[in-house]
Automatic annotation (TrEMBL):
Keywords associated with the record: Hydrolase, Membrane, Protease, Serine protease, Transmembrane, Transmembrane helix
Domain Peptidase S8/S53: 36-284
Active-site residues per Swiss-Prot or TrEMBL entry: D45 (charge relay system), H87 (charge relay system), S236 (charge relay system)
Protein name: S8 family serine peptidase
Organism: Actinomadura rugatobispora
InterPro entries for the chain: Peptidase_S8/S53_dom (IPR000209), Peptidase_S8/S53_dom_sf (IPR036852), Peptidase_S8_Asp-AS (IPR023827), Peptidase_S8_subtilisin-like (IPR050131), Peptidase_S8_subtilisin-rel (IPR015500)
PROSITE patterns in the record: SUBTILASE (PS51892), SUBTILASE_ASP (PS00136)
Pfam families in the cross-refs: Peptidase_S8
Transmembrane segments: 344-363
Amino acid sequence: MLCHAPTALAAPGPRGEQWWFQAWEIQNKVWPISRGRGVTVALIDSGVQADITDLQGVVLPGIAYSETGTQARGDGRVDSDSELGGHGTAMATLIAGQGRGSRMMGVAPESRILPIQASSQYNYPEAIRYAVDHGAKVINFSEGVGYRCTDSIQDAVSYAISNDVVIVAASGNDPREPDTAPGDCAGVLSVGALSHDLKIWEKSAPGRNVMVAGPGVSVGATMKDGRFRPNLNGTSQAAALSSGVIALMRSHYSAMSGREVVQRLVATAKDVGPKGWDKWTGNGAMIPYLALTAEVPHNARNPAYEKLDTLQGMAPDVPKTESPAQHTRAVANEKVQGGGSSTGLLLGIAGSVVGLAVIAFAARRIMGRTR
């Protein structure tokens, strides 16, 4: 496939299974505007296997933390996930895959990945600060800790946002386990999962902080062994693709604040699911082309940041470089009952995708096609 970019040069295109490329008109309408150049996306996950062909030249040196603390033990460029086959690597290919090797293409192939290996409430705060201090403009959490937002995580989130960094998190893969950190922290863009026909994925966790929804059903990715694995389901993929879209926006609108970028993304979403805001899809399905081009009123609502503004309003004298969360947040470490951790990539194979051309055509019409 050809990328319809201004250079008119042949470039790698997505695999046929990557239905969201046609649904979002990435090659025809989005890439001529932005491919993510100049934006670093921090991936707080299991690490990233930097030596696979699809990610060569994409992964920056990062950091790896111990399981229960903040002691560094590597640069994050090795994926430690042995259970799922490379969760962090899969998310990185969704964002910045180069279309080589397994031919997996990311939605923002000119962005760069900062890998941060961290997996618990003990090292998330330090991981967020590391990402901010090492140049990330977007932080992706395709996982959750199974607890509601703690003071320490909220404090780090507020630090990131005060330094103009957008944080994206998966809502979770267990409907019995809503509102888990970091997705329920004030200021975080929590993302639910949709199928190609805009149906809510049955295991997408509801949440009071869900703001938008993205592709999360039959969304394959390349694992740490370099092989493409099809038909993966989860809010992990929805969050990673959302982070890729935000990278496109931050590249195109390089002078625009993260707050305004999130405002645009939310304001241009297509309402799906129950009418109006709902706890599974938030304000609707993301439409990248509209997020990049539509006229958005300056006073458009920005619910993701309104909650943070409430916290900041309670502590107006706290300097911008310091987080006000420690002065305002009351309770933490409350275990959410029912189910395990809401880590992103649920590797339940949904069966082979039948009739990809039909799926892509339907998705293209209803999930972001503009005329």
